[in-house]
Design goal:
The chain is α/β, with parallel strands linked by helices. The protein contains 16 helices and 18 strands. α6 crosses α7, α10 packs across α14 and α11 packs parallel to α15. This is Diphthamide biosynthesis protein.
């Protein structure tokens, strides 16, 4: 008998599926015990645990560093208090760069130690100790020489520059800063830098705010950025959020320098095309991509309210890590907005059937006239603050046709929700479920985009055929346990 795998599988693919690792996050393959302890900062981690008097600590690892979880656990366990417990977290619910506070709360942890690359998003539940790892820079003089040469070649007459780097070079930040200042001293150019903290709690200022370059009143006079590190999502976000600032990048692994800001326009053009698709969408899915970044709940509530005022239908979905197969189950949704940390917000994969935008891009799409100056915001707090000032802006008349830049035609937007919707509806007059008629089919509701889409589909599920088929004769089944069932005669 041929196995039917159209709607189900044996589960073998879950075991045989290869795990794609990020080679940039992997540590050096050969290390002595002393180098291993130095790379993972065992001494500093033990001191943080003892000084914080933590009793239940969660150790969060990305897939690339999971093989080192056991030796790190053993080294920490042998040096902390006897009554302290350590728990290893793997396979995070969302991106590995975010602190998985939800998984840590499952073991009732009072602190999290995050290993590897981190997006440094503000958390609000648990204190976090970061261990970034230590990538080497073989020649600091070469780094300073090539960055200064690239800065001079552009002809920018800057009085100051801002130093930024990949998170794995934090241990060398002081040396890099000192070398750059010595090289730029003759040119009387100052170097600004804000240190990245190794520990965060709910009262600590967001490091993303600390790392923001100080901008002049004129955006074109903002100081250039000198970036140290390989290409990454963090660098892409830096280019988008500082599109008017030249960014010179030095890669220590290849010893090459690039003017990265030349590709910013292409990035913004691609994002603007996605914004136009979001503008044509009438049904929007709000994807919950984080449960640990501060202000994610107020932002989700604000997105729901904004879509409601725009008479668009919204659905809130939590699917964990995104993939095209998961989102393909929601065919009635025409566009998704992802609420996630800045490094996981930008989704440009072409294999997704529907466009995925950021909250800031959705904010632009909902404007009566989609005016975009090139400014790009990924910080939740700033998006909420900006939307609060623009909440009094009158919306466009939905009865008027709008011109779609995607199709090149005029379109009439669907209208979901009444004109005046009460803030506290009567619970006796509303229902959270879809009603059924006498035939047992899903009824089409005025504000149910899913119900309307289901009615338009050719296949609507298995037919119930109530009262049309005679009941089957009951038969005695097998009995016993799995290793030896008995047949009833």
């Amino acid at each position: 008998m041929a196995e039917n795998t159209a709607f189900s599988s044996s589960g073998e693919d879950a075991i045989s599926r290869p795990v794609i690792l990020d080679s940039q996050e992997a540590r050096p393959t050969t290390m002595s015990p002393a180098e291993f302890a130095e790379y993972y900062e065992i001494d500093r981690t033990v001191q943080e645990i003892i000084s914080g008097q933590f009793k239940r600590i969660a150790l969060q690892f990305p897939d690339e560093l999971l093989s080192d979880a056991v030796p790190i656990y053993q080294r920490l366990k042998g040096r902390i208090q006897a009554d302290a417990e350590l728990y290893v977290l793997a396979d995070t619910s969302y991106g590995s760069c975010c602190v998985d506070e939800v998984a840590a709360q499952h073991v009732d942890a009072d602190a999290v130690i995050h290993y590897g690359h981190a997006c440094m998003s503000q958390t609000y539940r648990l204190p976090v100790i970061y261990v970034f790892g230590k990538k080497p820079v073989n020649d600091l003089d070469d780094l300073a020489h090539k960055l200064v040469a690239s800065l001079t070649a552009t002809g920018v007459n800057a009085r100051s520059v801002v130093l930024r780097h990949d998170i794995a070079y934090t241990h060398l930040a002081d040396s890099i800063l000192e070398t750059l200042r010595a090289r730029l001293q003759e040119s009387q150019i100052t170097v600004s830098y804000s240190a990245i903290p190794h520990k965060l709690d709910s009262s600590t200022t967001s490091p993303r705010t600390i790392q923001k370059p100080v901008e002049d009143s004129d955006p074109h006079m903002s100081p250039p950025i000198l970036y140290v590190g390989p290409p990454s999502l963090g660098l892409t976000n830096l280019l988008l959020t500082h599109s008017l600032v030249p960014v010179h990048r030095y890669d220590p692994s290849t010893r090459e320098v690039h003017l990265e800001s030349v590709r910013t326009n292409k990035l913004l053009m691609r994002r603007y095309a996605v914004v136009q698709k979001a503008r044509d969408a009438d049904v929007v899915g709000i994807l919950v991509g984080t449960l640990g970044v501060a202000s994610y709940l107020p932002l989700i509530s604000h997105l729901r309210q904004s879509l409601k005022l725009a008479h668009k239908k919204s659905y809130t979905i939590s699917v964990g890590k995104l993939n095209p197969s998961k989102l393909a189950n929601f065919m009635e949704i025409e566009c998704f907005v992802l609420v996630a940390c800045p490094e996981n917000s930008l989704i440009e994969a072409k294999e997704f059937l529907r466009p995925i935008v950021t909250p800031f891009e959705l904010q632009i799409a909902l404007q009566p006239e989609p005016v975009w100056t090139g400014e790009y915001i990924l910080d939740f707090e700033k998006i909420l603050a900006q939307d609060a000032t623009a909440s009094s802006t009158p919306g466009r008349d939905l009865d008027e046709p709008t011109f779609s830049l995607v199709t090149g035609k005029y379109r009439h937007a669907k209208r979901y929700g009444g004109v005046d919707m009460p803030s506290n509806p009567d619970p006796n007059q509303t229902s959270a479920v879809i009603l059924r008629d006498q035939n047992g089919t899903v009824a089409t509701l005025k504000d149910s985009a899913a119900g309307e889409f289901l009615q338009s589909r050719t296949f609507q599920g298995l037919e119930t055929r109530i009262g049309l088929d005679a009941p089957s004769v009951l038969e005695q089944g097998r009995s016993g346990i799995a290793r030896g069932y008995g047949e009833t005669v």
